User: Which sequence fits this backbone?
């Protein structure tokens, strides 16, 4: 028995080793390093002097960091709740359809999600093009003035928010559909016998039973949008990146364009802690939701 | 329910269905518009009115993109990186998932918690130190460098563990009776029983890697080493202000993943639902 155990442990070590090696190299080590250099004035490559909490203390008076923090919060506000509601409404519509029609309609909603962000960017940059974009033709038809959307301070974030919802809703719709399918048909049949209307059925049956999925979608979206970078960077090319600054963009700019690894790391740590806190809260909430059952 | 009640319910049900279908068409329209614009000659693309179908359908932009730009090289880079990441991730995750599921060993609980905890790590925050690490290893501008930080998808381990947990214990006992080693049991019994999940996870892992932007963008500075998702947004001079050419490049970049999805629709949605359900 003892030799068996030892053999098990040996085999397990061999099986786990490749993963563990990669994990330590690309997860644990960089995380430790990130915390480390955030207390120094290191450039991107190379070491620096210990400066204590200076990099963090400077954040409060750094206007660009403030812009980044506000824009990230604004972007979360624009996308997370609206995106969840839109996905819920669409999935309620899609779930009524049957068979091949449902598969086809779902595919139309889901296809954007499967595409790389750069493809999404190129398509929408063309749609929103100030001179030739189809959206501008539509504004013309409606008799409205054209807007240089990606170059304008007010429209940039809402536009990128809409594009993001368009891009990612397919994922949320998929989760909602899975949730809707798991609600037993008998409950709806019973409600129909009781002459319950569409709204009552939704409010009394669908909404409460779907709540775990709704909160899951909401928090997945929340965590994803806190880490927003790609779309903002791409749509800011040739525009006004400093006005559209978000947290990851700040890290990128400080580290890779201004060669200030230490100051960039301070913001990376801030983002890291923020995401971990939200994840832990999410985990606790889901546990509570699970415990209720 | 009364007859009018049913009729009214049917009427509103019909309205909702019609709205859903209309919404789907509007939703997909930008995709259609992007593709259709790439099939028009440049002078048609910039016409001051909406032209829903090209007057002179042309593939010239695709020919141009494939013959006169670096897209060919970018395709090779993207395929190499995506296949490399997928193979390494799937194999290492499967081995680790099997150990977690079937073997008793010291540190098992700790490893499991490490994997669960890693869901919380925002890889975007690690870009600085991923860059430092990659350049210390001399891997900037190489396939290995693009791949390295992407080699971890903890969710794949968790899915494997759950699927291996579901394999009835009799199979394992029978194999142990036959004096089969762990590797033999894994590859002859557990893996064949889970080909479906392996295929599904491989496809989505390929798609995730193909679509990755931030890290491939940071770890490559030479245009010929770019992946296609980065290249089409960074090398503008290759296309100038030729809108249709740019869109043709975009279609070429999105085509492999769109096809992968359309061909393996059920597998892709299954794997994505699986991985999300666990992320919670």
Assistant:
């Amino acid at each position: 028995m003892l030799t068996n155990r030892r053999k098990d442990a040996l085999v397990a070590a061999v099986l786990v080793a490749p993963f563990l090696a990669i994990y330590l190299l690309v997860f644990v080590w960089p995380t430790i390093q990130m915390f480390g250099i955030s207390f120094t004035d290191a450039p991107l490559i190379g070491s620096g002097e210990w400066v204590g909490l200076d990099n963090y203390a400077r954040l409060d008076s750094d206007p660009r960091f403030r812009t980044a923090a506000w824009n990230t919060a604004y972007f979360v506000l624009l996308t997370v709740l609206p995106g969840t509601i839109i996905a819920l409404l669409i999935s309620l519509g899609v779930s009524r359809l049957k068979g091949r029609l449902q598969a086809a309609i779902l595919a139309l909603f889901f296809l954007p999600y499967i595409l790389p962000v750069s493809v999404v960017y190129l398509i929408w940059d063309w749609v929103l093009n100030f001179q030739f974009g189809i959206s501008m033709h539509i504004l013309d038809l409606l008799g409205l003035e054209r807007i240089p959307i990606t170059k304008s301070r007010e429209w940039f974030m809402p536009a990128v928010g809409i594009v993001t919802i368009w891009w990612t809703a397919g994922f949320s719709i998929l989760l909602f559909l899975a949730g809707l399918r798991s609600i037993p048909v008998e409950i709806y049949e019973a409600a129909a016998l009781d002459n319950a209307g569409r709204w009552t059925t939704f409010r009394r049956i669908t909404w409460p039973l779907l709540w775990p999925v709704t909160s899951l979608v909401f928090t997945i979206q929340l965590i994803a949008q806190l880490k927003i970078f790609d779309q903002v960077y791409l749509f800011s090319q040739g525009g006004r990146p400093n006005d559209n600054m978000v947290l990851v963009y700040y890290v990128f700019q400080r580290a890779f364009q201004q060669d200030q690894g230490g100051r960039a790391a301070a913001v990376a740590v801030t983002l890291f802690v923020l995401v971990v806190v939200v994840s832990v809260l999410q985990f606790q909430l889901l546990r509570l939701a699970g415990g209720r059952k | 329910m009364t007859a009018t009640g049913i009729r009214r319910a049917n009427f509103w049900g019909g309205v909702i269905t019609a709205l859903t279908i209309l919404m789907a068409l509007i939703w997909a329209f930008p995709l259609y518009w992007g593709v259709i614009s790439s099939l028009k000659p440049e002078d048609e693309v910039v016409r001051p009115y909406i032209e829903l179908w090209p007057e002179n359908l042309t593939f010239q932009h695709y020919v141009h993109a494939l013959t006169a730009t670096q897209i060919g090289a970018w395709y090779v880079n993207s395929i190499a990186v995506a296949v490399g990441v997928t193979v390494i991730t799937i194999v290492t995750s499967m081995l680790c998932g099997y150990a977690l599921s079937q073997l008793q060993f010291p540190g098992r609980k700790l490893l499991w918690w490490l994997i669960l905890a890693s869901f919380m790590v925002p890889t975007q925050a690690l870009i600085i130190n991923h860059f430092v690490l990659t350049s210390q290893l001399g891997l900037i501008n190489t396939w290995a460098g693009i791949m390295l930080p992407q080699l971890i998808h903890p969710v794949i381990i968790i899915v494997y563990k759950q699927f291996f947990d579901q394999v009835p214990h009799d199979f394992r006992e029978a194999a142990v009776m036959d004096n089969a080693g762990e590797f033999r049991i894994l590859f002859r019994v557990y893996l064949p029983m889970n080909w479906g999940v392996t295929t599904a996870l491989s496809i989505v892992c390929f798609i995730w890697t193909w679509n990755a932007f931030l890290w491939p963008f940071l770890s490559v500075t030479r245009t010929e080493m770019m992946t296609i998702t980065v290249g089409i947004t960074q090398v503008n001079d290759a296309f100038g202000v030729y809108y249709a050419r740019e869109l043709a490049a975009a279609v070429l970049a999105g085509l492999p993943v769109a096809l992968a999805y359309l061909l393996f629709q059920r597998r892709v949605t299954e794997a994505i639902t699986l991985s999300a359900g666990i992320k919670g």
Chain B touches chain A through 96 residues (CB under 8 Å). Chain B has a mean pLDDT of 89. Residues 12 and 142 of chain B are 58 Å apart (CA to CA). Chain B has 15 helices and no strands.
